[in-house]
Amino acid sequence: MSDAPPLAGVKVLDIATFLAAPFAGTILADFGATVLKIEHPKLGDPMRAFGTPTGCGDTLAWLSEARNKQCMTLDLRHPQGAEIFRRLVAQSDVLLENFRPGTLENWGLSPDSLRQINPRLVVLRVSAYGQTGPKRGLPGFARVAHGFGGLSYLAGEPDGRPVVPGSTSLADYLSGLWGAVGVLLALRVAERTGRGQDVDIGLYESVFRLLDEIAPAYARTGFVRERMGADVPTVVPHGHWQTADGRWVAIACTSDKIFARLAKAMGKPELTRPDRFATTAQRLAARGEVKGLVANWAAGMSMEQLGAACDAAGVPWGPINSIADIFEDPQFMARGNLVRILDERAGELVLPAAVPRLTGTPAALRHAGRARGADTDQVLGNWLGLLADEIGALRRAGAI
């Protein structure tokens, strides 16, 4: 029998909307934290209407990304609602929010004031540009963050316009991931010192931090990396090629040693002669020719044949999968990356499994995203000891 979940006993209040800070809560909930999703009594989280609709009234995006959370309604701007919220804060370890900077302060619920109630409280604050700086008060979504953080500038073909770098919500997911890391770090400090703190993340920072060496390269040499499609500036061949059966594959050739293996797989070991393409510098100088050789080789065989040749030679490669391909791939099946559940409201769902994989205390998918306010009465009763008539009075007053 496994031990308790890693975050058992950790209580999290999620008053954020859409995706960035709430995704941090999803990660924490997957690993056993009690995450209480708090929404406005009438409006709810707009994420419920974002994505593919379902018959239960909430989208597939909500059902997936609000999973494992309890849901209650509470108007933080209502005096009684704010008082209930403060009582919940007193019992909690973490607060997640992603309002514009200054919003909680305007409501009289600043992190500093909340830590007068609970000194150990950790507050994750996700916003477009962070809590400081000249742009702190401006709105923004992931699309804007991709551009401001430098990612969109790199996405696309050399002669084309910047494109969406994969998921349009990438910065939201990354900010949630960084946020979860920050929360865990701050909780460790709170355990040691008894003092909470803020975790301050700007959406654009989450993508900028992942752009490998472009910052030190520009600072040292003035080099501005431009759009290169599937290419990278430092090695070649390292990109995407189409096979004879119309499939696309990725081949990663990051060293002279791996290029020698690829040349062998291509049946052209002479490409590694000292006067040809033995070194990275030689291949970079002849980028177009080297890419053309690989393109001609890939175009002459099926993806299965190319994969067999690369596997035999020890060359890293992989198919460029659609979601339909992923659902049929035995690796995804073997790893349990797709989890099937039967939801009481939406029926059968297939959701992405939690990451990372822990061998002793793995994540658990207990339920999909709940209905708005589904757990309000239970939370108020169990957390705060309110009686049914007290809860009814709060509901009539519009506080819940």
Automatic annotation (TrEMBL):
The keyword Transferase applies. Keywords: Transferase. Pfam families: CoA_transf_3. Signal peptide: none annotated. InterPro entries: CoA-transferase_III (IPR050509), CoA-Trfase_fam_III (IPR003673), CoA-Trfase_III_dom3_sf (IPR044855), CoA-Trfase_III_dom_1_sf (IPR023606). It comes from the Bacteria. This is CaiB/BaiF CoA-transferase family protein. It comes from Paracraurococcus lichenis.
